[in-house]
Design brief:
heterotetramer; A: alpha/beta; 33% helix; globular; C: alpha/beta; Elongation Factor Tu (Ef-tu), domain 3; 7-stranded antiparallel beta sheet; 16 strands; binds flavin-adenine dinucleotide; binds flavin mononucleotide; binds FE2/S2 (inorganic) cluster
Amino acid sequence: MVKLGISIGDLSFKNPVMTASGTFGNGIEFDDFFDVSRLGGIFLKGTTLEAREGNPYPRMAETPSGMLNAVGLQNKGIDYFEQIIYPHVSQYDTNVIVNINGSYIDDYILLAERINKLDRIPAAELNISCPNVKMGGMAFGTNPVTAREVIREVRKVYHKKLIVKLSPNVTNITEFALIAEEEGADSVSLVNTLLAMAIDAGKMKPSLSTLTGGLSGPAIKPIALRMVWQVANAVRIPVIGMGGIMTATDAIEFLLAGATAIQVGTASFIDPMAPVKIVEGIESYLSEKGISDIGEIIGYINRKTS
Amino acid sequence: MVKLGISIGDLSFKNPVMTASGTFGNGIEFDDFFDVSRLGGIFLKGTTLEAREGNPYPRMAETPSGMLNAVGLQNKGIDYFEQIIYPHVSQYDTNVIVNINGSYIDDYILLAERINKLDRIPAAELNISCPNVKMGGMAFGTNPVTAREVIREVRKVYHKKLIVKLSPNVTNITEFALIAEEEGADSVSLVNTLLAMAIDAGKMKPSLSTLTGGLSGPAIKPIALRMVWQVANAVRIPVIGMGGIMTATDAIEFLLAGATAIQVGTASFIDPMAPVKIVEGIESYLSEKGISDIGEIIGYINRKTS
Amino acid sequence: MGKRTEDLRIIENKHLGQDFFILELAGSSKITDFKPGQFVQVKIEGSQDTFLRRPISIYDIDYERNTFKLFIQIVGKGSAALSKLKSGDSLNLIYPLGNYFTLPGEYEKCLLIGGGVGIAPLLFLGKVMNSNGSLPDMLLGFRNSDRIFELDKFRKVGNVFITTEDGSAGEKGFVTGHSILSEKKYDRIYCCGPEPMMKAVASYCKINSILCEVSLENLMACGFGVCLCCIAETVRGNLCSCTDGPIFNVNDLKW
Amino acid sequence: MGKRTEDLRIIENKHLGQDFFILELAGSSKITDFKPGQFVQVKIEGSQDTFLRRPISIYDIDYERNTFKLFIQIVGKGSAALSKLKSGDSLNLIYPLGNYFTLPGEYEKCLLIGGGVGIAPLLFLGKVMNSNGSLPDMLLGFRNSDRIFELDKFRKVGNVFITTEDGSAGEKGFVTGHSILSEKKYDRIYCCGPEPMMKAVASYCKINSILCEVSLENLMACGFGVCLCCIAETVRGNLCSCTDGPIFNVNDLKW
Ligand SMILES: Cc1cc2nc3c(=O)[nH]c(=O)nc-3n(C[C@H](O)[C@H](O)[C@H](O)COP(=O)(O)OP(=O)(O)OC[C@H]3O[C@@H](n4cnc5c(N)ncnc54)[C@H](O)[C@@H]3O)c2cc1C
Ligand SMILES: Cc1cc2nc3c(=O)[nH]c(=O)nc-3n(C[C@H](O)[C@H](O)[C@H](O)COP(=O)(O)OP(=O)(O)OC[C@H]3O[C@@H](n4cnc5c(N)ncnc54)[C@H](O)[C@@H]3O)c2cc1C
Ligand SMILES: Cc1cc2nc3c(=O)[nH]c(=O)nc-3n(C[C@H](O)[C@H](O)[C@H](O)COP(=O)(O)O)c2cc1C
Ligand SMILES: Cc1cc2nc3c(=O)[nH]c(=O)nc-3n(C[C@H](O)[C@H](O)[C@H](O)COP(=O)(O)O)c2cc1C
Ligand code: FES
Ligand code: FES
């Protein structure tokens, strides 16, 4: 038997495969397809204090090996979450993690306090990298000063595992990872989507109502992999890698680069079974290579070349 | 007849389709395929003062809708250029533009002085964005201070059209475009490749000898398009757009976003006729839409939405 | 049975002429849970530029043979790739997806209005109505007579009326101009077609206080309610057209 | 005629068993300018993950019918997609590319060494030698007898010797261990196969002062000398294996 378990501090995960926020709904939508409890963890759709309607339609454009989205954090707010979603997701036998968002630092703090009280939520992902909102989001995560401030304030009130989700839209992503580490984050996750644009030449206008949106999918995998590799070599806290992971092979590339765990995002749209297939694929890969513990491949290429 | 001509200052181009440096050799390699003089201009392979061997093999990896390269500016140096390449490319009836590179500012200056003397070279592209060299390249182009310095010094000695090639590996690309404009550049071209990585899961090692390389091809088109749009809205000098242009439709998207001209890069590897097919495709598009002058579509989406 | 993802075998790919074709697929599980108005998400293999699945309505069902059909128009890369499939090839689907048309009460008079490829979900709807003992009227609009296919099928499930934009078949003009609308009174209208047509039908229904459901064709990334890309603006806020739709009562839409 | 890019029609796709197949293509222009050792760049359609072309050697030519063949092993996505092509399908190529084997002088004794799918360029080379009046020896190495195909073709152009790693055909072991090498003296050896094999052959040749040319299989992005990705390290610096190669004299390589 291959050992697939990993951990972030004292929080353990049965395997390194999780789902990316905003691409897995609240898990419930996948109940028909597979047993969600087989995953290492699930990251729920980005939540804000108040309910939000998101951006106008159209919010999506297909691009070569990827897609743009400009959803803009549509969600029903924390009250609805506590009353309706929480009871359901509490039944999963896996780590259920909330992705928290705000326009102002105070929003993040208030939300973190609420999430902190929920017993069955062992961790929160601090999203300072959403490119699709007018206020907050990526604006926090691409400026070292505001990034530090929001992480520091949230850390004060949030006492479980704090994962900071980094933006790839920066010159030097390790700078932001180091800030997260310095401010006491337990982990960093990366990457969020890349700010991008699509234009319909026939109609002579932008494809999205918001003009720009976030690029995800295999197109960004080489960029995400580079950033995960850079960050894993710069910080000591565990790194959760994502960006274009479609198959177990893709996931293994991120682990080899230094990610302790990975998130499956856009892949779930095309194959709702992708996350669980990736768990199985990683297991076969390790068996075939005669590797008994997933820990042996995490950061393997860095041990070899340094 | 549709008017396809555009200009950068007083330098005119018969159409907006050019070729990206490093993807078109010195033009000569395309003589078998089509009449290179049909293009608006050609940007030759990156040149340095001295001859360079570039990076060790392997230098290339295929990625979803794209590729990584880590060539590292292999070229035969400026002496060879003047003696062997220049006489040949001088015969083309199009604008032949040299892409200049260096490890230190002095290298750029010395090279720019040499290029300045070549009658048949009406413009130079200052490459401060190569991600594949240990010194110079992207290091200049991702730091506002050094970027300004190298542009300023080259501008002093180079008296023809100076085009500054920008790196997409920055938080805010308009900052660099504005610096180029302030320092007297005649145009900016963008984007160069995105710093990225590929790992061979089977062999458990990085695919490139240099670990990281530059991502090009359709995968990056949405990011490039967003940056071109941002820059075109920020500067007054003409913008030359590129990144993943495979077809005339792609080229038109860049023009609509605000590019005055475009460069075809990686596409030429897959279809050596791509640049000339794009000239033809743009012409048909304009005819079908009943547009008589290419100028009408340049920046069209900005006029409409602002 | 719930939503599922499966490789299904293509039994026939029937090219109808112009840009239309019909794929018949062999259900691997029992398909008795399909409801009219629902759709499938088709994975496109063998096309370098299609990353996402494509939503296609369920056009027809054969419960005995456990097969069903998709009626598709070639409009781009994905549909073009699908048109090249041959019998025996396999196709990966996520299905059945979406909500479904509300069936009429026993004595309600119904009109099904379709435009172009938008006629697709109406055949299945008509058949279900038949099995409930009613014979709906069907008003089908086309650009011209060359683009009319499968009429015999529709004639079996209802009384068919036609409009064409150029008058080459049926009445000339758009569906909303057809004489049947002034001659008959309907309790319910079901509509699927280009957005301008559905909006025109919706406003006709509102004015005349007719219950009206339309099938939206919003762009979709997932098709099962997780990406939130396919939203329709409704009086109850932004709703997913893949789970809360594709069928909407026009009174709910902010049209 | 120079390099060109064209859509060619597939006349036959012959599956040989294991992972090997042969595509026969109808030349649209005259193919009399092909030289042994040259290759084509094949565009892969219908495979979502193959962006770049794939380089494949010219295996055989039929001047009368103006057709030529490619001998391909399925090793990944691109070759797998090619294996599914059918006669009548079209394939886009850039060709002919690369330099070519240096032909021997009139009285020189030659050995052609191929390993696995590396035998591909040697048949064409052998045929050209035949037409110059010489009958080369051919030493072909395989993993096992199940992976030996087309031997009849090779027997027509030269004296064929075989090795297999498991001894299931010919002599057991690697090509460099074959008895022919100790029994006969050659003036020239031409070699194509896995890199370790070519390196072993190269060192044998250097020790025995035999002229040796190998065909490299470096990763290529363009195939016609513009990307500088396919370089081989040589005594004259980094050279493109797509234009200065794929054929190199081993004395030029930094092996
Ligand atoms: C619930 C639902 C049911 C559908 N049922 C059917 C059906 O039964 N038969 C059928 O032929 N089609 C149906 N469609 C539409 C079908 O999904 C699209 O035609 C298809 O996705 C186009 O894919 P493509 O790759 O061929 O075109 P693309 O290359 O993706 O696009 C070609 C052009 O069509 C436009 N386009 C693509 N999809 C849409 C859309 N959904 N709305 C508006 N414009 C679009 C694009 O912007 C582009 O201009 C349905 C759509 C939905 C949402
Ligand atoms: C000049 C030249 C002539 C060739 N002639 C032939 C021929 O006649 N018949 C034939 O079957 N093949 C030939 N090859 C090799 C052929 O190009 C590759 O097998 C093919 O590109 C693999 O594509 P794929 O998509 O099937 O594999 P991929 O999915 O791209 O790769 C599968 C695996 O093979 C490895 N790989 C792919 N290409 C190469 C390579 N060039 N060198 C080392 N490893 C590689 C990859 O790293 C990966 O591990 C030739 C190559 C060159 C450069
Ligand atoms: C439709 C969509 C919605 C998303 N919503 C969120 C979100 O609410 N919060 C968040 O942190 N990231 C969100 N993301 C980003 C993903 O979690 C992930 O970081 C990104 O898509 C890259 O991974 P991928 O390429 O595997 O999809 C969203 C992505 C998509 C495609
Ligand atoms: C193999 C290769 C070599 C390149 N060499 C150079 C170079 O020498 N100088 C330069 O400015 N850009 C170089 N580039 C970058 C291209 O000019 C272009 O900016 C980039 O590839 C994006 O465009 P594309 O996606 O159309 O290829 C190179 C790109 C590739 C793929
Ligand atoms: S298409 Fe994803 S939620 Fe509807
Ligand atoms: S493959 Fe591009 S130079 Fe050889």
